[in-house]
Design brief:
This protein is α+β, with helices and mostly antiparallel strands. The protein is built from one helix and three strands, in the order βαββ.
């Protein structure tokens, strides 16, 4: 089985995004990715910033 890996990082210096009452944030990402058998990890990066890593299985 192959996988698709999506990595999004920032350096922590950007403007704060306004909160949306319609969004579900990281919990929503985890729920959606898990529906397809994948997983999401999210954590602060050493030295500042943040990283979100999603892995989704892809049939060959």
């Amino acid at each position: 089985m192959h996988e698709l890996v999506v990595r999004v990082t920032d350096d922590g210096r950007g403007a704060a995004a306004p909160r949306s009452p319609d969004g579900h944030g990281l919990l929503g990402m985890r729920e959606r990715v898990s529906m397809y058998g994948g997983a999401v990890q999210a954590a602060p990066r050493p030295g500042g910033g943040f990283e979100v890593l999603a892995r989704l299985p892809v049939a060959a």
